[in-house]
Write a structure and sequence with these properties.
Alpha-Beta Plaits, alpha+beta, single chain, Four Helix Bundle (Hemerythrin (Met), subunit A), 5 domains, 25 helices, 703 residues, five-stranded mixed sheet, 45% helix, Helix Hairpins, six-stranded mixed sheet
Amino acid sequence: MEEEMDVSQYLEIFLDETNEHLQNLNTQILELESDPENMDNINEIFRAAHSLKGMAGTMGYKRMQNLTHDMENVFSEVRNGNIKVKPEMIDVLFQCLDALEEYKNNIQETSDEGTNDNENLIKALNDILNDGKTETPAAKEEAPAAAAPTAEASTEGTEKWNDIAFDDSQIRVIREAMKQGKNVYGINVVVQETCILKAARAFLVFKAVEEKGEIIVSMPSAQDVEDEKFDKDFTLIVLSDYSLDEIIKAAESVSEIAQVTGGVLELEKTKNYHSEEETAEPVEEKKEVVAEVKAEPKKEEKKPAAAAKAPEKKPANKPVVNRTVRVDIEKLDSLMNLVSELIIAKNSLVSASSSDQGNNTAFNEQIEYLENVTTNLHESVMKVRMVPIESVVVKFPRMIRDLSKKLDKKMELYMTGEETELDRTVVDEIGDPLMHLLRNSADHGLESAEVRAQRGKPEQGSIFLDAYQDGNNVVIEVRDDGNGIDVEAVKNKAIERNLVTAEQAANMPEKDIINLLFLPGFSTSEKVTDVSGRGVGLDVVKSKIESLSGEVEVKSKWGEGSTWTIRLPLTLAIIQALMVVVGGEKYAISLGSIQTIEDISPKDIKLVENKEVINLRGTVIPLIRLTEVLDVESTRSPEDNLIVVIVKKGDKMAGLVIDELIGQQEIVIKSLGKYIKQCKFISGATILGDGEVALILDANALL
């Protein structure tokens, strides 16, 4: 029982790592589809499949281990040049990834991988293996045989790497690496006798060492280590650009490791050593070796220039190891709440000091100091919570590829701004809306190849996903060069569904007609497919975005395409706000949406279509009297100049007429709860320094 509990403590790490590997595999296989000869991609896929196999084996998920093992076998043969990458192989690999995703979801929900053996996929992988099989036996047996020690291998002393009987291909790889100036080390790792999960510790050692170099041989074999078929130590042969001390430190950083020893490998001292002439192979064999050590394939070893450059290529494949710590999101939420309380306390002190006429200089200085500390602390916590949207959008190229095949349309997804950062809670929720918009563009937006040809467009449709920061907001655009929205079709559908009368539809502006698409159950599709037609997509998009205090709008031109724009706040917790008074009550307006504050004379107000507007430096801006919106009495005389807060949303502007200005303040947003949802223009509330509650006005909803 103790052992099971010990495994369970790795579950969270396992799920995080699996997510990363699966996403990496998706990306790499997509790239491999467009460039089947790319050896860097092939090596990366092999390593990711190997890591997944090791992790699944350590955790006891045998089905997952078997599937990844067969994937690894296929790529082992691809690496060796025995199998060529074909479109059929790519399809099978993507099906394997979907199956692994299913295993992962099951594990996440139940801690169990389920009962699906995916025999059809394992058979498909073995068929691929058998098609490319030469005289070499199955790749499964290759690793243990290659790294198997000789019968008398267990000698005294720590230099066990000299006891490995290398085969000819391994000797060639080591020589090639030495010629390129790489360090070749032997590392012996001894696990503590009290260690319960030896395989888990060994896996973590493998992972730590692989971040510093490439493991080419292990004794016992990697498979035996994963299956815990070793006593208390194992030996690794590592190619690296790092020093021996750094490699040893990486291995020692894993807990429950008793000892790590290492040294520079001297080939001539190893068993089974042959001179260079004896191990010479035909040219074709050499190509394989060069590929193994990630030098440029098909270059002859006479060219030292190419060899010298090879180490520089390594960082392109090995991700830079950042010094990061994984933190549970609940702990961050708790930290954020404490920061919120600190800011409220600071505001209380500010309020108390202002009522005390500000006589105590030392007191005021301390408040200023506290303000600096709380601001810096808030910024730091916010940075911790910010994550790139890449984690969400990285899965979309694969989705578009699958849709392209399903819909029989040629299409390509182009993405920019994946590094744009958003609050973690927003990023977690944004995936579904974006998926719906992209599927909408693929199915409804892009025309068939025939129609595109008639319109003089390229046969391949283009979908664009762009993200960028705009002030305190993040904007995400989904564009396509397809049909655009057929306003007449939308209008007719709305009349048919009794959403509007024919008279209303005739007088509706185009924008309002397009916005009907966001109504629940509204769809212009003639037939329901597994891609679309049920009328839930855009409804989900709108409700989800609005629940995140964001907004979505669409622009379209018939025959040229559509642009869907999502605007989201950077954070949902603490914001800089302008405090104002309307009708004797205090309100907050987010500083991010404010352009300027103007003093306007009543005689400068004009009427356009019976609505009040002002001409501000050549721009006509409509006025919104907040006293009317909030249904309160103004405290100002009609003859007085108006205080107008100019707010902007996208390319729309409006002037909010208020009674008094209080000033800028950092406020903590508190939800009004699920019972108060009627007021669209109130986005929440905040607690002021004197304990008073002020409502937060949503400028976006007012425009």
